[in-house]
Every structure is written in C-alpha cells, then in structure tokens.
Amino acid sequence: xxxxxxxxxxxxxxxxxxxATGGVAVGGYVNHSWRGIGACATQGLFTNPWYAESAxxxxxxxxxAAEAVEHLKQSDAGYEQRQCMVMDRLGNTxxxxxxxxxxHVGSIAYPSIAVAGNxxxxxxxxxxxxxxxxxxxxxxxxxxYRGNMPEYRVGYExxxxxxxxxxxxxxxxxxxxxxxxxxxxxxxESNTRAPIDIRVDWSDDSLIEDLTxxxxxxxxxxxxxxxxxxxxx
Length: 233
Description:
By secondary structure, the protein is of the alpha+beta class. It contains 7 helices and 10 strands. Helices cover 32% and strands 26% of the residues. The strands form 2 sheets. It has a 6-stranded antiparallel β-sheet, covered by helices on one side. Helix 1 (51-60) packs across helix 2 (65-74), helix 3 (123-137) runs antiparallel to helix 5 (160-173) and helix 5 runs antiparallel to helix 6 (207-219). The chain starts with a strand and ends in a 5-residue tail after the last helix.
C-alpha cells in the first residue's frame, strides 16, 4: 500500500505532500512538491520514479495537470502498473490508476487538495485522510466537499507539517495498509521560508510517533534559527 496527499495553494505558490507505505523509504520515490509549480505523487504496483521529473518539466513548460498525466502515459508502456497524481499550480489534479494495481485503489480530489492510494482496506482510508486535512486548513469545508475552492485559514501554513501528520494518522486509523505502514515522508515548499523535508525510512510499530519526533527536532529553536538564515530563492 501507498497513500499520498498533495496540496498546492494557488494564491501563495506553496506546495506540500505527505506519503506513507508498507515498504521502506517511501520518501526516496513517491512524494514531490515544487513551490510555484505543483506537486506529484508517483506510486503503484511498480512505481515509476522518473514520473516526477517528467511531470515537473511538463508543468514548467505550461501543461496543466491533465496534459502532464497524458504525457506520462504516452511515454510509459507500463503505466497500467502505476498510480500517479499530478497537481498543477492552479490546484487542478489528474490521475493514473493502472488496472494492474492491487485493490483497493482509489482517489479523491478537491480544488488544490487530493489524495490517492492503492492496496487499501477501504475507501474510508482516503476519506479520513482528506477530510482531516480539509477540516484543519479551510474555513469552508462543506463548500469544499461540493467542489468549490477552499478558503484557507490565515496562518495555516505555519502548522502545515503538523496538519499533514495528523491527517496521515487519521488515515492509518481508518485502515491504512493491509500489510502495516512502515515509512513516511513529508515535504513543504513555500516562497517565504526554507523547505521542510522530513522522512522516516523504517518504523516497526510507531510510524506517526517517529515522524512527530523528527518534526519536533525541526521545530527546536536552534534549528529554526538555522532555517531562518537560509535563502528563500
């Protein structure tokens, strides 16, 4: 199983993603965030790790999410083994759900927020995942669920890593991976601060706790001072 959430704020250019899987080192392959450009999660029965580079190039060259995904399919004879979602800078999302992936396979997309997963216990995993994120970040969740653009809470970006981890926690409580969930990765890129990129490459039985511990180290004053002195471009 792999589950991922991607998010782009069209107004600020922020891009964020979080992924988790029943295998090792999900962060080396799956979730990708590019400020001002978009986001991508490439997963599936056999992940194509080169999808992200191709998707980013397509988005930079002016393609929207649907065009970028169609380009991925045309250049990959094995796309039926893939699951992928691409979000462009306007918050539009497109998917690949290859027929050879192991059920349950699914996705949910609202403007600027999307989730996808495979080898899931049920639809409830993705529903819990995206609902937790929407409720924590938006002022108009009921409107978002009807397909309208989110109105984001002022300052939500400041606690976005914590919000992403909590959303993942809710997804895992709803069923998560049939095999267990052992690695996770989170990335946030914005135009106003240094990126946050944290990973747990393997955790036997405390994935959320271990991810939270890493984030707590990032939040310590000494590391924040380091981040505050990094360039934003």
